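Running this now, will post back.
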Amino acid sequence: MNRKKKVLLSLFGFVALLLWILWSEVLFVDRIKLNLLKNEAQKIRIALVTDLHSCRYGKNQRTLIQKIDNEKVDFVILAGDIFDDKIPDDNAKILIEDLVKKYPCYYVTGNHEFWSGRGNEMKDYLRAAGVNVLAGEAKTLILNNFAIDICGVDDPFFVNEAEWKNQLDSAFGATEKSHFKILVTHRPERIKIYEQYDFDLILAGHAHAGQVRIPFFNRGLFAPNQGFWAKYVNGPYQLSNGSVMEVSRGLARESTPLPRFFNHPQLVILDIE
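Update: finished.
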């Protein structure tokens, strides 16, 4: 092969890789249906937003906001790392201040909020904005005479292990047996602990789908706190106690040092029927 052909092939390969990286950064909306309700007349539509890391989605976050609005959701779950420890808070605040005017919003901390050293400041801001900040509490939401207990816990980085477990106990203890029970937690990997509680649905993020998601296997190349070949990275998982855990791939883009591969940023829309 002559030198000119080698240069052209190298250029083609570089352009193809660049286009693939750019395509992998495009936001996807994934609609997931879960049959968890006994009454056929009851339906819930939830937007699960995780791991934004204050990344930008269009001017004034319009790309992300419009996608959420288009789905006509009942409420929004913010499952940690909405803020970042390095990127300024502006994009996260723009999103929150828009959403909270239109939807009930529920938030739990992630590890990056703790790493920022401003976790409590962020919580105070969210409460003042009208967001339900969950740290060992259960908030009851009534939708069309249907009661939902939305529980949440801080990220384990935010509190010590004993306090984190106490928060789980406290949140679950505040639920009603007849209510549909949701746990919002940043961490998906603590399956053995979640299986000790009778939550109907668990919502999590954190793993970023391993940054590189292995096609056809739904595994992550490497995820925090799960290591290589990470298992809990994307989609619904059935737990041994009957609970269902939904893990979002998250929305992180410019906050990460490596591009996403086979792993589009994800807005999860959950239809619970």
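The CA atoms of residues 195 and 241 lie 6 Å apart. More later if anyone needs it.
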